[in-house]
Amino acid sequence: MIQTKCKRRGARRLMFTLGMWCLIFVAGGLNAQAAWRTLDKVRVTRLTLGDRQAFQLDFTNGGHGQVFFITPDVVRVRINPRGALGDEKSYAVEDRGTASQAARFTGTDAAPELVSSSGVRVRINLSPYHITIYDRENRIVCEDDGARPAMFDSSTGEFEANLKRTSETETYYGFGEKALPVSRHGQRMVNWNTDTYAYPAGLDPIYQTIPFYIALDKGKAYGLFFDNTFRSFFDTGKTDERRLSFGAAGGELNYYVFTGGTARSPKKVVSDYADLTGRAPAPPVWALGYQQSRWGYYPEARVRKLAADIRRYQVPCDVVYLDIDYMDGYRVFTWDKTRFPNPKNLMSDLRAQGLRTVIIIDPGIKVDPNYSIYTDGKQGNHYVKDASGRELNMNVWAGASAFPDFTDPKARAWFGSQFKVHLDEGVAGFWTDMNEPATFLPDVLDEPRIFHHPGKTFPLDTPHAGDGRPDTHRRYHNVYGMQMARATYEGLKRLRPDERPFVLTRAGYAGVQRYSAVWTGDNVASWDHLALTIPMLTNLSVSGVPLIGADIGGFSGEPPPELYTRWMQAAALTPMMRSHVETGKLDREPWIHGEPFASINRKAIELRYQMLPLLVSLFEEHTRTGAPVMRPLWFEYPQDSRTYLIEDEYLVGGDILVAPVVRPNQVKRRVYFPKGAAWLDWWTGKRYEGGTEAEVDAPLTHLPLFARVGATLPIQPIVQHTGEMKDSDVRRVKVDERAVFPLTR
Ligand code: GLC
């Protein structure tokens, strides 16, 4: 019986393999050049360089690679399927920490092994090549799928690797910015930074590329970072539910596996990832206050009225944003002098009211011989050229524009130095937009809802300097935005070494957190989008980026008052809190819908200001440990599998649980309290045991909020802006049986 089953399974496998090869053959037939091969047989050499050990891999079909530990808990695999390993430079990885570590060789010639000082073991199977990684308890962390060795196409540079999924219940998180449900199992995701105005839930890709994920199964986690900047993909069991595949259109099969330490905990995975790609510097405290934006705050009188309204309505607020309308014909680093005759005066008056000004900066520089920034950049040879060597000009807001090559250190330094004028005028922070890079399709200016089109960015053969490794846009597209944010951050740091820069970017790549905050682009004024903010932000958060937010109310469209108010509440404790809206729509100011909404919205913002000392301390914690500020429940409670799919609750640090209402007409909602802690209702002090679910009151006036029993929370009385905060007013309250935290001014 068993034999028959095996035979049947064997026959099925044979059919499947034949089918696969037919498929590959057909695909190959479509492209006469295509030549898919597998990395099937490998020769392994044990290398010892000083006190460090590594495996050298030489594949029979020409590929070469190395496998080693970079820390006792992190394995690195680097394979060039087409030849020798070259020198490398990663935009994601900070310079330290990618070299091999001391480890011990064990195993046999047929199955050589490398064991780290913490007992993590890597075993290599020679034919077919596959790697298995074991934790110190001898459990498999992750393993290549021996039945489907990595494949590559020697003519196009494309490749794909396959891991076995540990089980059908394995869930996956991270992947940077994706408009997808909280766990990304059963998905096929593409990484290609794209300007996607009004993206619907499920659209992929959107603005950012962070090819890092955390896998979780029955309390055990591991992470994988695929450091490859080409167009890449992850398939988490969509095409074949037994496999997790990933690959790219070029470059190396270059990845790190984070084994999660002794506990195999998500916390250790994320902190090791942060060690590799960098932590965000502590932001200026004012950037944690409420931020008021819209596309359309002009002229100066309108901005002055906004500031007066903010204070008149007593809505705590720290930041006012100016969108593209402040510029002279959308020329970056200029002002429209009719709309803003004296920006310096304006910003100093705003500052006197406790309001900082952040302005938008786009990468496109208008082609205009009478515009000194353009001519200066041209003279300095800072612009991207097309494949034929001519300056690449493409249309964005200002019409035909040139684009600095942000992968050229000289261009970055030049661009960074342009911020001097704005800093001297009193601008406090910069919002770098359209840096996917996004360009307009020539004939559809009125209908930007074409989500994916090759004409929406630079041609793929556009050359880039690549920081000494010249290559085309195909390789550097996904890092363009991050390098623009870097040019901005580094410029600000050079110009004001004693200040904490504030940069907010739309596009980015892994490691973007070292330079910038991130917002989730042009979202939509819909209940679906409000609900989407929690899975989007918590996953971005565990992808290493702590300072994040979504446009409150939805950028595109018009939210009914109830939706806007629920959004205010849901965002009250997200790391960044900013209202923003597209041009031509009602203002997104907290008082805009009149009473009772104005008072409820104010209360949400007041709650944030009361909690600011906690947010500040969580950002400090991030700089020490790499832990995110906004956390999905599973991150803190990986042993409680009921947390794995929760996407309408989030944690602030480990001690505050937020359960916003994200659906219309709800006055009650169900809340799950994670096992291993007890929780007190913030407003009433009612106690809930962990591991239980309860229906809680959630009238429109109310954000369901809970504090962990036993925690100590730094909170303060309400202030109107962060300039009014005093250390002496901060109370460290113990969350015990009696705690209720009324808002006080
Ligand atoms: C882009 C940005 C948006 C901004 C607009 C105008 O759509 O994503 O936030 O308001 O451009 O600059």
Features:
disordered N terminus, alpha+beta, 13 helices, TIM Barrel, binds alpha-D-glucopyranose, globular, eight-stranded antiparallel beta sheet, Immunoglobulin-like, 745 residues
Q: Mind explaining what this structure looks like?
A:
- 52% of the residues are buried.
- It contains 13 helices and 44 strands.
- β6 and β7 form a beta hairpin.
- Strands 2-3-4-5-20-17-16-13 form an 8-stranded antiparallel beta sheet. An 8-stranded parallel beta sheet has the order 33-32-30-27-23-22-21-34.
- By secondary structure, the chain is an alpha+beta fold.
- The radius of gyration is 26 Å and the shape is globular.
- The protein has 4 domains: 1-34; 36-277, glycosyl hydrolase (family 31) (Immunoglobulin-like); 292-623, Glycosidases (TIM Barrel), CATH 3.20.20.80; 627-734, Immunoglobulin-like, CATH 2.60.40.
- The termini are far apart.
- Helix content is 23%, strand content 26%.
- Alpha-D-glucopyranose (GLC) binds next to loops.
Distinct ligands: alpha-D-glucopyranose
Q: Helical stretch count?
A: 13
Can you count the beta strands? 44
- Give average pLDDT, whole number: 93
N-end to C-end Cα span: 77 Å
Q: Which CATH C-level class of the largest domain is it?
A: Alpha Beta
In CATH terms, the superfamily of the largest domain is: Glycosidases
The neighbouring-strand order within the major sheet is 2-3-4-5-20-17-16-13
The CATH level-2 architecture of the largest domain is identified as Alpha-Beta Barrel
Rg is: 26 Å
Low-confidence stretches: 1-32
Shape: globular
Q: What percent of the residues sit in helical stretches (DSSP H or I)?
A: 10-25%
Q: How can the largest sheet be summarized?
A: 8 strands, antiparallel
User: What percent of residues are in strands?
Assistant: 25-35%
CATH topology of the largest domain: TIM Barrel
Q: Which structural class should the secondary elements be placed in?
A: alpha+beta
